[in-house]
Amino acid sequence: MARARGGCASEGSAASNEPDTAQSASAANTLAATSTSSENGDTETSAAGGPSKDSFSYHAVELAPTDALPYFDRELELQPGLRSRVDALIAEEQASMSPISSTSSRLPPVYELFSTRPDLRTELERVASGQPSTHTLDTHRYTLPSPTSGEAASLSDWQAAVDSAHAQLGHMDVRMKNIELLKKYGSNAWRLSNFQQEQNIRLLSEQLDLVKAETSEINRLRQKNHLEAGGKLATLNKRWTELISRGLQLEVANITTSQEVDMLKSKKRKLETELSLLE
């Protein structure tokens, strides 16, 4: 069949160069129906709440709140040597932490490949272990041997050879019919298959573009929020510094004024003493 399909491309002059309009329309309708049915199937499955085969989901992990603003904080870039000190502190903290076991709830569950297909799992284990395959192509069925003992062979041996010849003739007849069918319908079927694949690629590309656009929008909003929060923090930090500076200035002024008041009081007492002596 593979060789016949390959040869059909060169012998497809009997088929038209353009795909049949009716078949193209039916392919488009089939693709739309498939997409609709898949969406409906997903909705029904989610509504029913039944788990799908080989489903994989993460456990919810509660993350500690953070006050980092990576789009605004640039101390690691502006202050030399700060990154190395931070890396050293992180390495020291990691060294003091106990390793996470494979059964920890913080890790996602172990995903088992081909959990519903033991035959594929066995084949995967065989390939992983490097063992040779036991399934080889049987070429004996494609040969037409005669009995090894020739004319002196028994009737059962000749009957087996005749049965093999009949089977080979039947296989050849089926192959010839398949070649004729490919010559007649193969070109349009191949074009329709390509059309369906192109439609699938187009739909997936549109979904990918939507996801990329959503990701870019999320990152843009995140950067905007970080910059706004950073600007507010910088303004509040500047205001706090000014208030602290004013408080220090007031404290210094109070101390200076208190000293001046003490000096004036001392001078007043001295003058009162001198005045009392003069009287």
Automatic annotation (TrEMBL):
GO BP annotations, alphabetical order: mRNA processing; RNA splicing
Keyword Nucleus: yes
GO CC annotation: catalytic step 2 spliceosome; Prp19 complex
Residue numbers spanned by region Disordered: 1-55
Cell location: Nucleus
InterPro entries: SPF27 (IPR008409)
Pfam family of the protein (one): BCAS2
UniProt keyword annotations, A-Z: mRNA processing, mRNA splicing, Nucleus, Spliceosome
Ranges of compositional bias, category Low complexity: 21-38
Superkingdom field: Eukaryota
Family membership noted in the UniProt record: Belongs to the SPF27 family.
Protein name (record): Pre-mRNA-splicing factor SPF27
Species per Swiss-Prot/TrEMBL record: Mycosarcoma maydis
Taxonomic lineage: Eukaryota, Fungi, Dikarya, Basidiomycota, Ustilaginomycotina
